Amino acid sequence: MSKANFKTLHLQGLCKRFGECTVLENAGFELHSGEVHALLGENGAGKSTLMNLLTGVYVPDHGEIVLDGQPCSIRKPTDAMAHGIGMVHQHYRLVERFSVAENLVLAADRAPQLQRLSAAAKALQETAEQLGLALDPYARVADLSVAERQRAEICKVLALGAQILILDEPTAVLTDTESESLLAAIQRMANAGKGVILITHKLREVVAHSDRVTILRQGRAVASNLATESLTQADIAQLMMGDVAVSQRQPSNLQANGPDLLVATGLNASRNDGSTAISNIGIRLRRGEIVGVAGVGGHGQPQLCEALMGLLPIDSGSIQLDGFQISQCSVSQRRSHGLRYIPADRATNALALDLPVSDNLALTKVASGNKGRFWISRKGLLHDAQNTITEHRIAGASPQGLTRLLSGGNAQKLVLARELDNDCVVAITHSPTRGLDVKSCGTVHTALRELTSRGGAVLLISEDLEEIMTLSDRILVMNTGCITGELPGTASASEIGALMIGGH
Fold first, then answer.
1. Which of 56, 245, 406, 436 could make an S-S bridge to 74, C-beta 3.0–4.6 Å?
2. Pairwise CA distance, residues 298 & 427, whole Å
3. Does one domain contain both 184 and 268?
């Protein structure tokens, strides 16, 4: 099948096992040219694995992929791209030390017209403009926020000429405005004859922007090729999980004059290129509260987290944690005082995906010397890991199983179990529910509230305004590296939005 001739795609009876674990069993659906097909399911249902079979990351054990009526062998990613099949993964596939344009050149081995840097940059710029997204083709990936990296990935795959486009949580890190712009662009692509497979946990996007829906549960398709126009969000949620666990606003344990746990005053820090990342930041967290930080991505949020945690040196200012001055402390010293960090990109910054689950759970304990200075009890680590897996209900995990085989929700449970331990006093969390389903979001929210209920505090940095409004006792707004205002947790979306775009 040539890229220009795509009409129908059929995935039929696909099966995939990893060791003793069956991830997909007789799964499949169909995609027509000119449609947006939503692929849904809880974390761990098999959505990403199914798409990895389509794009040649994995090879199916059974079943077949049929393009325009002809069985097709896709055994590696280049086979998929040769057929015009491209995917934007939930965890980005960019080389950090390269620019966005250089990443496109690197991927353009079958597109000679994009192998010159200027041509690649032009293609990226044109694609970004069509999507209504801001993107600097010459920006180094390492200097981009999570949201900016997502935009770069989307534009890269589109610039390579994908006709069948798979988007795994494409709007998870975008603002509402950016999401609407992207979804409108997706509809324009479908109108032009392309096929789009949309993986998302945002059911309102499914109802508003997809033509048909397929739902996976525990590796099987429990509903295939359903017309979206006949479904409500409640119908889809019922098919996905049987019930809907929606996080509700709960009273906090905040006392108006409670003691301060984290106080940052006059924080200033710079990026690697010398430009200002954060400027004159002041933050105060009191015992038992969640303070949300709202803002559009790319305005210094990652650098704020890193400065507080000691990963980014501050140029000036001070940080106190539970009465201790920690401005000059190392990361391990800050952790010993009870400071924890849950980064936005768990796959890159929180987990070693190619290590076993037990090793990931033990990383911080080993670093702090809890398991002995010169030797580690492997038996003890495995025992502790099994207890943690059982206590936190980390599905699909075993102490010696590879961490990369966990779904997004279960990987985040692992991070939460490790970071929000009994010694945690303050948790800095950046987009902690990014890419998670409804139930997994509820699990994360419950864990954060449990920390505050035992006297801790949470700094919640998120581009998901609904999450900020659901959890926060107070809301700070960040713009161009500065805190531009503070609002009560009861503030409306319009009040928060006005500060996010520079209003007062």
1. 56
2. 21
3. no
